[in-house]
Design a protein that fits this description.
- The complex is a heterodimer of chains A (113) and B (114).
- Chain A is mainly β.
- Helices cover 0% and strands 50% of the residues of chain A.
- In chain A, strands 2, 4, 5, 6, 9, 10 and 11 form a seven-stranded mixed sheet that branches. Chain A has a four-stranded antiparallel sheet with strand order 1-3-8-7, with no helix packed on it.
- Chain B is mostly beta strands and 114 residues long.
- In chain B, strands 2, 4, 5, 9, 10 and 11 form a six-stranded mixed sheet that branches. A five-stranded antiparallel sheet of chain B has the order 1-3-8-7-6, with no helix packed on it.
- The chains are: A mainly beta (113), B mainly beta (114).
- Chains A and B meet through strand 5, strand 9 and strand 10 of A and strand 4 and strand 5 of B.
Amino acid sequence: DGGITQSPKYLFRKEGQNVTLSCEQNLNHDAMYWYRQDPGQGLRLIYYSQIVNDFQKGDIAEGYSVSREKKESFPLTVTSAQKNPTAFYLCASSLGDRHNEQFFGPGTRLTVL
Amino acid sequence: AQSVTQLGSHVSVSEGALVLLRCNYSSSVPPYLFWYVQYPNQGLQLLLKYTTGATLVKGINGFEAEFKKSETSFHLTKPSAHMSDAAEYFCAVSEAGRDYKLSFGAGTTVTVRA
C-alpha cells in the first residue's frame, strides 16, 4: 500500500538532547513537508523540500534541521536549541503542484522530560 | 500572503443535525482550498478540495463545501451529523507562487451529542 510512515509514534527526550523523527513515503511524491501542531494553533510549517538535496525553511524553523538525501525520506532533527519542543509533529508529501493535496503521515508525539 | 480564519474553535451538534463549519480566507490570487479532518492522535485526511470549476464541491463521508468568491468563504457542511463525525477539522489554502505551500486555519473541534 502507498502511504507515509512516521516513526516512532511516541518519543520521549531529556532536555539538552537532539532527537530525529523519521518520515518515509512510497507515493513517488517530489515535495515533502514537516509541520508542528500545538493545541489551538493549527499546523505550522517547519521545513519543506520540493526536490532531493534541496529544502527551505518554513515559518518556525529555528531549533530544527532536516535533510533530503533520498526522494522517499525527509527526517527532522529537533535540536537542543528548540526551546519548547514538546508537540505533535506531522510529515506530509505532495506531487508538488499547487492544486495537489498534501498527504499526511500518522504523526509523532514528542515529549521532553 | 494567504491567511485562513475558522470561525469557532468548538462546535457541538446533535446527532442528525446539520454540521456547519465556517472558513474565510484572504488571497490576492484565485485560491485553491482544502478541508481536512483529524481524528485524535492521527494524521490529517483530505475531505475535499476546490481548485477550479464547480463551486459546490462534494467530498467523502457526506461532506460538501461551497466556494463563494464574493464572500471569500469556503464553508463546510453535512446535512446530518453522525457520531463518527466527532473530530477536528482544518481549512487550508494553497499559497500563490512556486512553492505551493498550504496555510492552515486554527481548526474547529466538532462534538456530536447523542
